[in-house]
Amino acid sequence: MALEKEITLPHKGPFREEVSWLRCIFGLRNILPTEPLSLQCLSVLPTLPGFTIKDMILIALDVEAPLSKQTGHLDLSKNFQVGLSTFDTRLLPSIVLATAESYIQQTANALQTYNFCGGAENYCAKASRRFLFGESEMLLPDQIKANLNATIAKDRNIVLVVYGGHQDLLLLKDINMDILPVCIIDIQKASQSVLQLSRRLSLEELVTTLSCPFKYLHIAGNDANFTLRAMLLLVVKDSQHDAALNGLSQTQLSVLQAIAQSTTLNSATWLDKPDEENWKRAQQARFTTTEEERQEKNRKKKIRKLARGR
Question: What predicted TM-score, i.e. pTM, was given to this entire model?
């Protein structure tokens, strides 16, 4: 598909090429006047039949692990989490044509999210309790590469999505991960251009600004999922600059927004997952005895003692 060159709107700070990449992937026409090599590579990739959106998988990666001051590498010897969330654009045609009931379920399931954790048992248990989109999987540091490889398609064009991304990319380097994305999009940088910001926002600030539902940040799988949601909402926001969108494109953008703002999970909502403090109170209630229970326990203990003395 040939790219049409249009003058972009004014913005604060440097225009980020990530925005041009997102516009190219999702079929928006407001392209940066100059075409870097990475954008040329994107432009020649096939689109979905009948759509302006590229046929590819977008993969968000998030890593929660300390950085060693001595080595400059991630310290995976103690506690760590690796989160992965994927969005396959091939899902869009069926979602666009879905019935009302099926539409809700398909938009809810469009993002596939994983959380891998390792380290102390209580650390992994806490991460599992807070992971919103399934079950966390415990593993050892030398198992990270195999688990990531098992979730990433090798026969598709891939775009890697990060937020900030320093530690995420460092992990891929440290484990010699041979993923070859068409490009790497930093949503933190892209948001600065799209939202006309004079500074970079934290992930929490961005999802709040975009009216994206969220809960339990700093759990790697959750952060990866919310990074993809923020990306989709930035595309919708950026589309307001494109006066040439047709009806089908508007429908596609509505689907992207529905995916980003869905809170459905297995016929419920992940927003209803108990807060950490509520969970702690529930656990304490299981093992805390009332005064009446203590008195009854002591009474039975005295009865057993008297019975033994007879």
Answer: 0.83
